[in-house]
Amino acid sequence: MASRPLAMALALTWTCTEASGNVLTFPGPGACSASFNNCMQAAAVNDTIEIATDSPISGPLLSTTKALTIRPAPGFRPTFAEGVTLRLSVQAGQGGTIRVEGLRFQRGSLVVDSFAPVQVDLLNNHIESIQDSSYSAGIWIIMPGQVAAGTGAMHVDISGNTIQVDGGANSSGIFISRSPSPEEYPYQLRVTDNRIIARGSSQENGSGLGRTGIVASDDGGIDNPLRIERNQILEDPDNGDGSARFCSGIRVNANQQAATTARIANNLMVLKPSCSSLSSGIWLNGHPDNLVSAHILNNTIVAAQNGIRLGSTGWPNSPQFHFQVLIANNLIRDAPGFGVVVEPLAADSMVSNQNNAWFQVAGYQNFSPAPGSITSDPQSLPPRHRLSSTSPLRETGDAAVYTSGLTNLAAEALDADGLRRTKSSQIDIGAFEFGDATYRIDFPTSNPSVLYLLDVAGLNGFAQAMLHLTRSDGRNLDGYVGVPNPLSTYYEVGSQRWHVRSEDGNVLPPGGGLNLWAATPGSTADQYFVGLNSLTEPNAALLPDAWASLPSDYLFLVAPTRGVGNVAFVDTHPVAARQVNGQWHLSNTDGVGIEIGNAFVVYAQAPGHNAYVHTVSDANRLSGTVSRLDHPLLNGLPCAGVHVGVNGSGLMPTRDVSAHYDSNTGFWQLHLEAIGPMLFNGNRYNILIDPRPSDDACRVPLLTDGFEGN
């Protein structure tokens, strides 16, 4: 068996191509007027079908033998009726891209089987899988293996889906099966940012291994990198006794004579221990002739029978397995079996571990935790086991595993929420990085005032907090109440409390609300005071080096503040960051000059799935004062943590807006609230979405509305 360095094995890349073809609309003219099945049959390879109806689409089996893109038409949230399975197949010798995104399945399944290497993208779907389905998984991908030579590469991306699993003895949220092929071909798999939720009762776990969140069977191929990252495998939120949980979290089956590489990182698993002695949070199921190279990083595994299992059982003659595995920064707690099980390994194997936390773990099999491992109470908080402010796991992980040494793979240093980890020299242990938080605020409906006391446990006594305000519906989600006042924050030293202040002398509107973003102080989240030497032109103040040299695609949230002691000067105009001669500056976006002594909170981050730029256009401008946000992290989520900042690179003037949820359409909207110029096409806004409050404060509605914060 050939071996190769682990670093080379894990130098993962990802290549995506967009499908090209015609766009059909369902319901629409011709074949698309009769049924969805007819519409699929009428489409050609690489065509796109946009679904322009909210009426449930019936089945039970909707099937096509060609690669298509299926997605909602703008403004629609399509649903497949109860029991429908959507199946897309690609025959030998064909090619193309299968892309299914933004669809809802009422107790159904999404199935892809391919006899040819194609690109498969299954993104942002909501699936309720059923026990008696022919396919015992919410998403089922089958690659039978009869592939001709020289037909290209296989890329599979399963990301951003929410899947409920009702039961079945060995059912799964996501199941990928790849069989041996007479011809080897490049193959890449990415399973990221999915929420997989158990439903039902303990008896639905069945016998044997029971339900498993994600199963990836890698049965052959050349240098097959598997990326399984930022997934959350969760218990039934409506069954609080813990019986309705998955038995196992993630299983990778490496069953043939080919090398398997995997990165399993930043996943959360809350599991059921009393299923099988083999049930595990993460199981790398080896083959005697297969080299398995893996990095297991920053996972949180709760109540698995065994935390991590390496190797297989039941082989005749007790063969040895070949593993090169790094286990780092993981939190494994409440495991009644073993923290780690390692089956007999060949002499060329290496299993290293560092910076892990083990709590209430019964023992280990052929494994010894590294010196310095944490065994004290991690102080992680159910249901997601995020770290408390006093957790010993804060800033005790090793950030270098993402950038150097054995890993050497330019990994994304994002936690299970998709938020940045590298805010300081060290990172936290477990799936979630402690830090930035969202608070929803409601102004009182009686005795209005120009001041509002922020009596919030997470902020009281925390003078270093970096606060940004977005006018919104607040905590009670009570509909639209305009807040046109210019606002600022300040920290009162005597009471050790933060306050919100109306800067125009008018009282804060009764019943108005805010989304308050509290960023963790750091190099790109800090206070900034405009100094005499920072004014490079009448309306441009050069930011300090920590911000000035950031890349041009970074997103900024900027908020005026009076600071600690209520002593700083406040800018009451809309303010944004913009680049001048390649460096970031602050400017007022209504043309009024910025002044020396003004103080601001400045927060910056790279764009990502939770941070993007919204540009006002005819497609989303509903009126002169309203623009609709159409984004999978927001649609159907009335309690999403939405934060909005003016973007300085758009059409000027650009004014401050608020963010409100329209329950009639299921979309968030930006609103102008003060008298003045209207919204114009080309105005730009930075949208930051904090998935944490969506996850905890809106847990049950998300399970029916199709997305949970990622």
Automatic annotation (TrEMBL):
Region: Disordered, residue numbers: 372-394
Q: What InterPro entries is this protein classified in?
A: Choice_anch_Q_dom, DUF7452, PbH1, Pectin_lyase_fold/virulence
Source domain of life is: Bacteria
Which Pfam family would be a valid example here? DUF7452
Q: Which SUPFAM superfamilies match?
A: Pectin lyase-like
Which part of the chain is the DUF7452 domain?
579-687
This protein is called: DUF7452 domain-containing protein
